[in-house]
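Researcher: Batch entry, complex prediction.
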Amino acid sequence: DADVTQTPRNRITKTGKRIMLECSQTKGHDRMYWYRQDPGLGLRLIYYSFDVKDINKGEISDGYSVSRQAQAKFSLSLESAIPNQTALYFCATSDAGTGVTNEKLFFGSGTQLSVL
Amino acid sequence: TQLLEQSPQFLSIQEGENLTVYCNSSSVFSSLQWYRQEPGEGPVLLVTVVTGGEVKKLKRLTFQFGDARKDSSLHITAAQPGDTGLYLCAGVGGSQGNLIFGKGTKLSVKP
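Model: Structure tokens for the complex:
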């Protein structure tokens, strides 16, 4: 079984719909992240959480919200989806290593979201 | 804003050839990481380089961190089709001290 599991793997939705992407991990890591990947733009950070009570905005948080339901679960919501949110979304976890220079990210397999 | 620029953006070569891809910045990074992403999967960490001038080897892959810690390179010897993928470099930076990623080099190795 994968250490970082994302559901669904693929999703097609319509403009204006609310949608939730889910992420669960069995690595026991405190830190969890949501990224989106667009061709030619690389990976961009949406939100991150260092523990259950800690939620932080990333580079591109507008139009998104998150919930950290437990150490192992971090979900991403699009309250009213729009076509330019069509992208590949990744959840990642980290144990922060022995310091920021040693932080290693472990990624899920991604959710391909299409907003029509 | 710290940026990581990767080059080339695309690279298509034949099996057995050697190649080098680059990750450059005008800013100093405390460390740089390289990830490989295969189609349909998330990125997987290959290596972290920390010390200026450091060289690390992972089988046929050689990673180097520039002396000034502003750039890094990845050299692949005798490329194989299994090396095909998107190679991403990442470093701690930005206003929030999180990992920032370059846009990647998409490598295709043909048999």
